[in-house]
Amino acid sequence: MTSQDDSYLHKKVMPIGTVCELTGLSERQIRYYEERKLIFPKRTNKGNRKYSFSDVESLMDIANKMEDGIQTSEIRKEINKRKEKTSGDKIKQNMIRGQLNAQFNKGHYN
C-alpha cells in the first residue's frame, strides 16, 4: 500500500453518528474513549467530532479489549508504545533514505 493509498484511511471526515453505525458503539462509549485519551477525533469549527477509517479500526480494537477486561490505562500504554515504535521506525527510514541519497549523489556526481 502506498502512502497515497494510505492517506484516505487517516482523513478525518466521518461524523460520530456514522462511526456509531459502523462500530455498533454508542456516542457515549466513543466519547468515553476520547476522554480516556484512546482516540483523538478532529473538531470542526462548530466543535463537531470527525473520525477517520483508522479511528474506526482503533475503536473496534479498543472495544474488543475492553470486552476482554483490559483496563483503559493498559490500552493507552499499548497505544503509546505503538506510536513510539512507529515514530522510531520513521526516523530510521529517513536516516537510511538520507544515507542512500548521500551515497547515490556522491557516486553519481563524482
TrEMBL record:
Keywords: DNA-binding, Repressor, Transcription, Transcription regulation. Gene3D superfamilies: 1.10.1660.10. The keyword Metal-binding does not apply. Residues 13-81 form the HTH merR-type domain. InterPro entries: DNA-bd_dom_put_sf (IPR009061), MerR-type_HTH_dom (IPR000551), MerR_fam (IPR047057). SUPFAM superfamilies: Putative DNA-binding domain. GO terms for molecular function: DNA binding; DNA-binding transcription factor activity. This is HTH-type transcriptional regulator TnrA. It comes from Pullulanibacillus pueri.
